[in-house]
């Protein structure tokens, strides 16, 4: 109601609303909305929210400000930090994992080794399902080791994998296991078929992240290699292999290899349109060429 009356006055004579009367409430609603997307918005993302606010409610412009929303941008930034502190007190996993008590002694600085989504990941570190804890979900994981070996058991495996999703995310984000260790604990996440060529297996050990193409009987078999482990085979075509490889970077919380960073960011930001606010000069140049 306050914003509605403020807009009526603005359209009538251009008068601005007294920001201080609504700033706290507006900020509180905005940070809750931002949190549904990410607990750690970038500066560009916060600025885009502030700009959108002023675009919708120009009566909230700040007198004397060139952009009209710089003060909103800064207050949102600090309000978001305060919101994270409140969430951490209640044990919200995505922010609680970055408290000093949960960091290694050598990393106990607020801005050091912050665990947060870096590739627009959704459900980066979700809480455990209601009524479940780490021990109960680990029992489900142990049962999965047996269920995955049974034939025609896809429905049961899918249900247990869905139920233990939060546990997998906690392990991969907080413990940072190797791909080989994670595959031993969660074989259902991977296709267990392996290429039977001994020379191929040895050559794959050298690769951190790769889509391998093996030719056999005039047919191409596309597989995915992570940290020297062939984790999935029989993908059919290169397009599907690329999509699944990007899925693995989320499922295993992997960092893009330095020599392939631009390639993977092009897949992510230009083709999948995830986290498009931050484009490197090279990606921006490619985007301009594609648009033209």
Automatic annotation (TrEMBL):
Chain segments carrying region Disordered: 101-134
Superkingdom of origin: Eukaryota
PANTHER family for this protein: SI:CH211-196P9.1-RELATED, ZINC FINGER (C2H2)-60
Protein name (database record): Sterile alpha motif domain-containing 3-like isoform X1
Source organism (scientific name): Labeo rohita (Indian major carp)
């Amino acid at each position: 109601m306050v914003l509605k009356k403020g807009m009526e006055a603005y359209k009538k004579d251009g008068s601005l609303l007294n920001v201080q009367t609504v700033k706290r409430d507006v900020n509180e609603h905005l940070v809750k909305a931002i949190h549904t997307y990410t607990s750690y918005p970038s500066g560009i993302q916060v600025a885009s929210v502030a700009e959108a606010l002023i675009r919708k409610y120009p009566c909230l412009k700040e007198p004397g400000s060139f952009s009209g929303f710089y003060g909103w941008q800064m207050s949102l930034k600090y309000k978001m930090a305060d919101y994270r502190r409140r969430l951490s007190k209640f044990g919200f996993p995505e922010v609680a994992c970055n408290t000093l008590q949960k960091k290694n002694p050598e990393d106990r600085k607020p801005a050091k080794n912050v665990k947060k989504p870096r590739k627009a990941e959704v459900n980066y570190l979700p809480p455990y399902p209601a009524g479940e804890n780490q021990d109960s979900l680990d029992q489900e994981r142990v049962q999965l080791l047996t269920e995955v070996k049974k034939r025609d058991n896809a429905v049961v495996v899918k249900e247990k994998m869905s139920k233990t999703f939060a546990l997998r995310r906690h392990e991969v984000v907080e413990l940072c296991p190797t791909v080989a260790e994670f595959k031993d604990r969660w074989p259902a996440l991977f296709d267990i078929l392996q290429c039977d060529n001994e020379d191929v297996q040895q050559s794959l050990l050298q690769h951190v992240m790769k889509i391998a193409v093996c030719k056999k009987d005039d047919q191409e078999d596309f597989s995915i290699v992570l940290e020297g482990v062939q984790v999935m085979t029989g993908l059919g075509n290169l397009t599907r292999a690329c999509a699944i490889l990007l899925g693995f970077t989320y499922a295993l919380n992997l960092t893009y290899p330095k020599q392939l960073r631009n390639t993977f960011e092009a897949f992510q930001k230009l083709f999948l349109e995830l986290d498009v606010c931050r484009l490197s000069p090279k990606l921006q140049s490619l985007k301009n060429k594609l648009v033209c």
